[in-house]
Amino acid sequence: MDVSKDKSKELLSAITRINKLAHNGFRKKNMPNREFMFLKTIKYLKNGEGISEYSSKGVKASDLSKFLSITKPAISKLINTLEEKGFVERITDKSDRRVVYINITKNGEQILAEETKMFEEFTHRIVEKMGEEDTDEMIRLFKKMYDTIVEMECEYK
User: Fold this and answer.
1) In what order do the strands lie in the sheet with 100-104?
2) How far apart are CA 42 and CA 131, in angstroms?
3) Where in the chain are the domains?
4) Which among 33, 48, 46, 109 is positioned nearest to 78, based on CA atoms?
5) Average pLDDT in the 113-137 region?
6) Are the C-beta atoms of residues 24 and 120 closer than 8 Å to each other?
7) Which of these, 141, 35, 139, lies nearest to 87 by C-alpha position?
8) Exposed (0-12), middle (13-18) or buried (19+): which is 135, by Cβ within 10 Å?
9) Model pTM score
10) Over the stretch 71-121, which tens digit does the pLDDT of each residue have?
């Protein structure tokens, strides 16, 4: 096996380990990571950071499915779970009753704010422990990795 394949496996392993630790390390287990990320995505899209049409009405389940690359049945299940917990609500479009928008409730906003604060504090502690120089280097490398992935995506289209 060549060095490139060894490094690829090592990189994938490191990302996987970091991902597991990061998702478990900052939380008090108020909600599973997938629910946290789903609420963050709704907020992101609804605030117009992704697509401006969401800002007033909410976000359609089909758009969440596309944005997150998750099947529509999986999105539906997640919406049902969050709706049962009181974190999201479905709102039917008055002009077209087939269209249903998903919005975050006040309870959802509150838990999202709490979870986000914990995540930011966790990230801040990582930066403090790593130091400025290593953090800057990691940011540089993450940006380079992102640009490389975007470039590769363009090659596949």
Assistant:
1) 59-60, 100-104, 88-92
2) 33
3) 3-156
4) 33
5) 92
6) no
7) 35
8) middle
9) 0.74
10) 999 999 999 999 999 999 999 888 888 888 999 999 999 999 988 888 888
If DSSP codes are grouped into helix, strand and coil, which group holds residue 59? strand
CA distances from 131 to 108, 121, 126, 128 (A): 34, 15, 8, 5
- Give 57's pLDDT tier (boundaries 50, 70, 90): confident
Q: Which two tokens stand for residue 44?
A: 């992101």
* CA pair distance 88, 74, nearest whole angstrom: 16
Per-residue tokens: 13? 């392993």
Question: 19 pLDDT band (50/70/90 cuts)?
Answer: confident
Distance of alpha carbon 61 from alpha carbon 49, whole angstroms = 17
With 70 as the cut, is the pLDDT of residue 130 above it? yes
Q: Which CATH class is domain 3-156?
A: mainly alpha
CB 103 within 8 A of CB 88: yes
The DSSP result for 65-115, as a single string, is: HHHHT--HHHHHHHHHHHHHTTSEEEEE-SS-TT-EEEEE-HHHHHHHHHH
Query: Can you tell me which residue has the tokens 């590769």?
Result: 152
